[in-house]
Amino acid sequence: MHHRLDRFYRLWGTRLIHLIYNPDFTGFDKLPESGPVVLASNHVSYVDGLIIAAACKRPVRFVIYEPIYNMPVIHHFMQVNRAIPIRPTKQSVTHALAMIREALDAGDMVCIFPEGQLTYTGGLSRFKPGIEHIIRQNPVPVYPVALTGLWGSLFSRKFLGSWKRFVPRNPRHSLHVTCGEPLMPENVTVNRLQSAVLRLKYT
Fold first, then answer.
1. pTM, rounded to two decimals
2. Could you count the other beta carbons within 10 Å of the beta carbon of residue 175?
3. Which of 86, 144, 175, 202 can pair with 196 through a Cys bridge, CB separation 3.0 to 4.6 Å?
4. Is 51 in contact with 23 (CB distance < 8 Å)?
5. pLDDT digits 0-9 by tens, 150-190
């Protein structure tokens, strides 16, 4: 049942993203059709996961901040999507890392946001070192992903607490989502991954 619901939600989520943003997806054809993969993306808005899911032909399991994961209504979609909740406590991080390892062992595609939070500036915050631990446990390819064009949208933090966030901004021609060349497990470090995402943002 969850498998059918996941396909249904991904279909309509993809249609919704195309309706709102008319996004330009680049490089996602290089993702393998099966097998364990990690996507590592910058984090600009509350709809980043929905946008990345729309770019991928296969299901993506997202590592999500636990309070958002547990929000009413959203929690249902998180469960169907088999998202992995996390919060900055030792117990939660340990549990999330175990779930990520199980997901990769099962051949799933997992997306993480190594900044650990939405950007407050539109720029790229320092990546957390957890990605290195994940790849040591599961040596799989890591694909950098860059989202550009979402800063200043209703779903970003640019106008947090201001009425300006509700002013329409014609987003249909500005959203670009780029997937770069994979970093092989032996080459994955926080610095290399951050540099790869930064290059994609400004390419």
1. 0.85
2. 19
3. 144
4. yes
5. 767 766 556 565 555 555 455 555 789 999 999 999 999 99
